Prior knowledge:
Blueprint: H1 2-30, E1 42-46, E2 51-54, E3 59-62, E4 65-69, H2 70-85
Helix pairs in contact: 1-2
Amino acid sequence: MRGRSSQNIWVLVLLMLAGVVLGGFIANMLGGISALSWLAYGSSFGLSSPLVLDLGVLTLQFGLTIRFTIAGIIGIILAFFIYRKM
């Protein structure tokens, strides 16, 4: 029973990730249209410049920026409803 529950969680996570990606893509594509520009409204947070760790032989760069838009939030909601119907 535990294995099936963890599989369902992963399906939900993948659907939500797909919803965010598709929502961001839609926001980016339709943001230039004046009637639909509200879909691209959102906020970004994270590291604006990457954190660099230089070890001499190896250099690592860490950076993460998350941008939430209205279209991305709609994508997350739609992904959740699709998950509930499955």
